[in-house]
Task: structure prediction
Amino acid sequence: MRSSNPVFSRRGFSRDAGYAGFNAQQPQAGGPAVGTNPYAQGAANPYATNPYAPQDVQLGAPQQARGNVMTIDDVVSRTAMTLGTVVLTAVLSWLLLPVDPANLGKSYGIAIGAGLVAMVLSLVQSFKRKPSPALILGYAAFEGVFLGVLSAAVSTYIADGVVVQAVLGTMAVFAGVLIAYKMGWIRVTRRFYGFVMAAAMGFVILMAVNLLFSVFAGGDGLGFRSGGLGIVFGIVGIILGACFLALDFKQVEDGVTYGAPREEAWLAAFGLTMTLVWIYLEMLRLLSILQGDD
Result:
C-alpha cells in the first residue's frame, strides 16, 4: 500500500534496494503477527505482494541475509536535518530579504524562483529510483527561502503574529496525529487510504480550477480561498494534511518493521517534510483569513 504523500505515492521505497531481514512468514521481532496487517492479503508482510519489495520476494521465500536496515532513529535524524534546513533558510530569508514596499518585488521574485527550483528538485527526486540526500536537502533549502519570504509578507501585510500561530498549529497537528496513530485511534486501512486519496484528488482539482479562474478573471477566482469558503477549504486542507501524516507514519512503520534499506530514511524524511509544509501553508492561509475578517 502506498502512502498518500506526494513522494511515497510516486514510487514508495526503492524497488531495487530490497528489504533485508525478514521472511514473508516470519516477521522480525516486534513486528505484527501473521494476518494482523490491514494491507496484507493472506500474508503478514505487506511488501511481499507490493511493488516496493524486490521481485524475487514471495510468500514462503527463504529469508534474506540481514543488511543495513532503516530504524526509527534514522528517520528521526534525517527528518530533523531536512526540517532544520527548511527552518534555517526560512529564517535567513526572512532576515535578508525584506518585504518593505521598496524591496517587496525583488524579494517576491527571489521567493518565486526558489519555489520553482524546490518544485523541480522534488520532482527529480520523486522520479529517482533511490533517494539523494543532496537533492532532498537542496529542496529543503529552496523551500525554506520560499516559505520565509511568504511568511514575512503575510505577517507584515495581513496578520501580525500569524506565522508563530501557524507553526504552533502545525506542531500540534503533527503531535496529535502521532499520538492518535500510536494509540490506535487512527487505523490506516485500504478504505482509509482510498477515501483520503479521493478527497485529495478532489481538493487539488478544485484548487486548480480556482487558480485558473483567478488568473483569467482576477480576484480570488471562485472564492475557494477567501471568506467563508476559504475557511472551509482551509480546514479541509489541514485535515487532509493530517491524513497524509497518518499514511506516512504507516509507511515508515512498515518500512522499519520489514527491513527497508537505511538509505530510505532520507525518502521518509523527504515525504514527511513535504506533508508538514502542506499543513503549514494551509494553517497559515486559514489563520490569515480568520484574522483578516476580524
Remarks:
- The radius of gyration is 21 Å.
